[in-house]
Specification:
Number of strands: 11
CATH superfamily of the largest domain: Spore Coat Polysaccharide Biosynthesis Protein SpsA, Chain A
Number of domains: 2
Oligomer: single chain
Distance between the termini: 27 Å
Strand content: 15-25%
Structural class: alpha/beta
CATH topology of the largest domain: Spore Coat Polysaccharide Biosynthesis Protein SpsA, Chain A
CATH class of the largest domain: Alpha Beta
CATH architecture of the largest domain: Alpha-Beta Complex
Shape: globular
Largest sheet: 9 strands, mixed
């Protein structure tokens, strides 16, 4: 199974400027992500960035291939749009049915096995437009946290809904209020790792944001509202810490690489 990986890496991030090049154990955060992608089964790995400093800083991955990075429009509203710009580049020759994994450039602890897993999940489901992963929620605190996105799946693994709200809601364990909820059984945390077919990526990024996406601030709801099928698999292992804020970076720097 062949697939591509595109790593959107925005230097001008508002919450943590220069994030791709911030140091963790002597290397930029982005380099750790790039190395993980190169250690996966991907036949192409490309960094999509808004800044020449990111291009200049990238080094070869563990496979020794020269690093690949491309400058993209700095006005893109999301990493998905940045990935779509790369996928549409005619010089790459990608086809409508090619599989592209969107690996965020702020996931330095992403295991390569999960990159392979999400690509394989899409490849194995000919009816799916998108694939993504989830992990079990392990605490009530996580279940009630609006910063942790929850997903509910159908029996066949297709996404039914994503929300910042605590879903599925155990009515009998709730006692009538959020603070009284005592159960998080069967709740799943969504991981922001996606595989798309190129044609689905084109379709998704051509659509305007929908009402549900605008309400929850979750881009994947645009796909669901448009009737696109999202396959959701249980991650083979936890992905580690993603870096969205300075607090996340401080937590990461307390850890040693695997």
């Amino acid at each position: 199974m062949g697939f591509k990986v595109v790593i959107p890496a925005r230097y001008g991030a508002t919450r943590l400027p220069g994030k791709p090049l911030l140091d963790w154990h002597g290397r930029p955060i982005l380099q750790w992500v790039y190395d993980a992608a190169c250690a996966s089964g991907a036949d192409e790995v490309i960094v999509a960035t808004d800044d020449a400093r990111v291009v200049a800083a990238l080094k070869p991955g563990p496979d020794g291939r020269p690093p690949r990075a491309m400058l993209t429009d700095d006005a893109h509203p999301s990493g998905t749009d940045r990935v779509a710009e790369i996928a549409r580049d005619p010089s790459l020759g990608w086809t409508a049915r090619d599989i592209v994994v969107n690996l965020q450039g702020d996931e330095p602890q992403m295991p390569p096995v999960l990159i392979d897993q999400v690509a394989g999940l899409l490849a194995d489901d000919p009816y799916a437009d998108i694939a993504t992963l989830c992990t079990p929620i392990t605490t009530l605190e996580q279940f009630l946290d609006p910063n942790i996105v929850k997903v509910v799946r159908a029996e066949d693994g297709a996404a039914l809904y994503f929300s910042r709200a605590p879903i599925p809601w155990d009515r009998d364990a709730a006692g009538g209020s959020l603070v009284a909820q005592s159960s998080h059984a069967s709740a799943l945390r969504h991981l922001g790792l996606y595989a798309y077919r190129v044609e689905a990526l084109d379709r998704l990024t051509a659509l305007p944001p929908g009402a549900l996406e605008t309400l929850e601030k979750l881009e994947q709801l645009r796909a669901l509202a448009a009737g696109m099928r999202i396959a959701v698999g249980l991650a083979a292992r936890p992905p580690g810490i993603g870096v969205d804020t300075a607090d996340d970076l401080a937590k990461l720097r307390q850890l040693a690489p695997d």
